[in-house]
Amino acid sequence: METYCKFETALDILVGKWKPVILLRLFEHGTMRFSELQKAIPDITKKMLTQQLRELEYHDIVHREVYQQVPPKVEYSITEYGRGMHTVLKAMNDWGVSHIEHLNELYGENRLKEKGSR
Amino acid sequence: METYCKFETALDILVGKWKPVILLRLFEHGTMRFSELQKAIPDITKKMLTQQLRELEYHDIVHREVYQQVPPKVEYSITEYGRGMHTVLKAMNDWGVSHIEHLNELYGENRLKEKGSR
DNA sequence: CAGCATCCTATCGGATACTG
DNA sequence: CAGTATCCGATAGGATGCTG
């Protein structure tokens, strides 16, 4: 079996404390301004939001549109290419949902996050 | 769209510097002893190997079989449940492979890992 | 408004030594 | 052989303040 050498690559791109939430919002709302993202994700700082968006932008998952005006306006959206992640995200999400149930069966409810999950 | 809330869960379980390699080896070889895993992954330390295996074990992805004998013998394998991740891993791997090509088109070859990918 | 720069800390991961 | 314990450095992430 010569596969599974590059799923680490996918992992790298998705990892980051806020990437999941950011992607979720952008997939839901389509296009959002920087400030809208901030409001939608209350606990995130500007620094983190910028940083994570830049990484996603580098990987061509997210598009950054700057409007040259005062006050500034910048809009973020999922790229055409980024939509190709839909399958992967869905696969991961579905597995995640069922896995939570599985863990509950194993250890009982309300025990996630307590042990072993770093 | 009410989905994509839990793909973060899948992410958490797969994240860890060595989890991808460990899973890869176990999927390939089926069952491996602690020392075999060490040899198969030269740069990993015992501490890291133990730690990552314990996390995977907690999530019921990996099974730990202890043989009560001297010298000790412990074997690791993917659980029945763990095999259910196959779909997800494959989806991620396939996307990873194509994404590397995509990045090469965007930025040219040999430029991965240089920018933005944390 | 949408950031960047600076500083700080918490967590992750590595090196090394010891043990049943 | 298969770990555990301890220490230690690197890095991810957070708080705060400044700016075009």
UniProtKB/TrEMBL annotation, chains A, B:
Residues 5-104 form the HTH hxlR-type domain. It comes from the Bacteria. This is Winged helix-turn-helix transcriptional regulator. InterPro entries: HTH_HxlR, WH-like_DNA-bd_sf, WH_DNA-bd_sf. The keyword Ubl conjugation does not apply. The keyword Ion transport does not apply. SUPFAM superfamilies: Winged helix' DNA-binding domain (SSF46785). PANTHER family: TRANSCRIPTIONAL REGULATOR, TRANSCRIPTIONAL REGULATOR, MARR FAMILY. Pfam families: HxlR. Keywords: DNA-binding, Transcription, Transcription regulation. Gene3D superfamilies: Winged helix-like DNA-binding domain superfamily/Winged helix DNA-binding domain (1.10.10.10). Transmembrane segments: none annotated.
